[in-house]
């Protein structure tokens, strides 16, 4: 069985996480730490503290696996090394806040007014065939703020504190500063073309409702029940890129998850109240979820095909309770992003094909076409909320990706793990 832990990271220096190239010489940090980068940071810390040296004849370790001699690791990492391949990391977000569901609308005049989630309306119209009161489809209807009657718009940016949090409904924004670097040509004493670049790095500060606060990233870890992942106080990790010049230094704390921290995740009450529907269950991803590796397709797919593909994907996930055979996705609101990451454990090797992620906040409304499977659906969703969803995708690799030239090489398996919960109207 598994146990969940909470990991907190307090940045002590600016950071550049998964530097995104906006233009050829401008990079910008992400405002959260994807699970794969967090796991990479822990692996690096373990390997750097590993006692084997070339002088004593042992090869430098580049991969944390069962071949490492745990007695050569620093004591605080020994429990981690023992079960490292089974330890799963979620994304770590500012203060543990989430990306809201893509159906969430906020007031244009004052984003602190209570938001409106139009999922129940859209669901009733799309799936229930119900005509909206004013005859217009929910997506195109003018919705107004319950407080000031101002216009509503989709939640665009920032992280939203979840229900149950002491600052529920508030939002947090990571602050960034731009650093510009110029490289001089030694001969002409001018800057060389292409050698001027800027980094928008995150700084250890976030704006919460307009006030500056020390930034903390929080995520979940799932590990085998007998692994004790607690770390000594004051431990530091280096996270992201340019760690050699001091970026990404963070103080890390890992503690067992508190008993009430996922209270309400399996509660269907809000959905039944909002839609009157007891046969379907809406599930929201609490972080990014690896969907597939692929080139995309020119073929235009229909909504029905997409929903069938999503249902097939969910049925293939490993789960303590097997998914119902007649599982269907009645409605989905997903946001995608594609990335070409370095392949885990293979230095210098990038993924040949883009990895497609569903972003946190994406949601799926599940049902079964065979009514006798209704109880299995409930049990399966409860198991998902208890264990999270795991995705392992084969990734083809390529070396020397720069300058348009590359060599195909062996890839690896990319793994992602994503906590999920049942949708809540709050
Ligand atoms: Zn308003």
Give the helix proportion (percent range). Answer: 10-25%
Give the oligomer, counting copies of the same chain as homo and different chains as hetero. Answer: single chain
What Rg do the Cα atoms give?
23 Å
Number of separate strands: 25
Mean pLDDT: 85
Q: Cofactors and ligands present?
A: zinc ion
Poorly predicted ranges: none
Distance between the termini: 31 Å
Q: What composes the largest sheet?
A: 6 strands, antiparallel
Q: From the helix content, strand content and strand pairing, which structural class follows?
A: alpha+beta
Percent strand equals 25-35%
Total number of domains: 3
**Count of alpha and pi helical runs:** 6
User: What gross morphology would you assign?
Assistant: globular
What does it look like?
The protein is α+β, with helices and mostly antiparallel strands and 426 residues long. It starts with a strand and ends with a strand. The longest helix has 14 residues, at 35-48. The chain is 15% helix and 35% strand. The strands form six sheets. Strands 1, 4, 5, 13, 14 and 15 form a six-stranded antiparallel sheet that branches. Strands 2, 3, 9, 10, 11 and 12 form a six-stranded mixed sheet that branches. A four-stranded antiparallel sheet has the order 18-22-16-25, covered by helices on one side. It has three domains: 2-98 and 167-256, no CATH class; 104-154, no CATH class; 269-422. The model has no long low-confidence stretch (mean pLDDT 85). It contains six helices and 25 strands. Zinc ion binds next to loops.
